Amino acid sequence: FELPSDSFKYLGWCDLEERGVGGNQLRCPRVREGPSEEELFFRKEEHSLKRRKQVTDTEKWEKRLQENWENSAELNLSFQDLGDPYQVENFKRILQRLIRVEKLWLVDNSLTDLSAIRLPRCRELNANKNHFTSFKQLPKIPQIQHLSLAENNITTLRGISDFRHTPLESLILKRNPCEFQERYRQLVFSSLPNLKMLDGIPKLPEDCSPPDVRFFYRICTIL
User: Fold this and answer.
1) For residue 61, what is the enclosing H or E element?
2) Where does the record locate the signal sequence feature (predicted)?
3) Domain for residue 70, yes or no?
4) Could you give phi then psi for residue 197, rounded to 5 degrees?
5) In a domain, 161, yes or no
6) Domain that holds residue 110
7) Number of structural domains, the chain?
8) Rg of the chain over CA atoms, in angstroms?
């Protein structure tokens, strides 16, 4: 059974007409959108959305220029509540346009894979409280200096060496399963020679010792 709020779940409540609100005045803008009318029709959910007015190509282009994602330097896109696959795809399209962003917050968005995204100028990325399970699922961030991935589900340190040739100085992996791996800190620092701080703790002398890679073999002689 439908809830009374179902008729409002795709309404664009953030579309403010005839208002002088600039993008730089929004601290954490909602960028999610509902499915198109065609998609709702195939889902048999066209009743969920009132008839939208037709948007011309000119209006679409004006909206694109107004958003101006390409020139964003600092952006907070946290807490988007991306409950629909359409919204996730639209969110990724916006991320692909962030070619000049330097500081980006993506906290608590239930993200699982951004490997197709490239953020060429990003120096600081906060992706806490998402659903990443591997470093391979992170976006391409060649200029990253500060990376926070607390409260994800990263189980191993496999793939962390991809950041070896980046200027990464600070990394936070608190409350990830990989934090409980044996010789965790030594493994991270040996993989990332430029790293200065891990989980808020500066690099210590004991962190500089290489991980134990010695193997012991036992020979059994049968007479």
Assistant:
1) helix 57-67
2) none
3) yes
4) -145, 135
5) yes
6) 23-205
7) 1
8) 23
Confirm if 155 and 178 have CB atoms less than 8 A apart. yes
Q: How far apart are CA 47 and CA 95, in angstroms?
A: 31
The CATH number given to whatever domain includes residue 94 is 3.80.10.10
With helix as H, strand as E and coil as C, how does 120-154 read? CCCCEEECCCCCCCCHHHCCECCCCCEEECCCCCC
Q: Which amino acid is at 178?
A: C
Rounded Cα–Cα distance for residues 2 and 7 (Å)? 9
Say if 212 falls within a structural domain: no
115 belongs to a structural domain: yes
pTM over 0.70: yes
Among 35, 27, 21, residue whose Cα is nearest residue 66: 21
Asked if 29 and 86 count as a contact pair (C-beta separation under 8 A), the reply is no
- What pLDDT digit, counting tens, does each position of 18-57 carry? 556 565 555 666 776 666 666 666 666 655 555 555 667 7
Burial environment of residue 212 by CB neighbours within 10 A (0 to 12, 13 to 18, 19 or more): exposed
Helix (H) or strand (E) run with residue 198 in it: strand 197-198
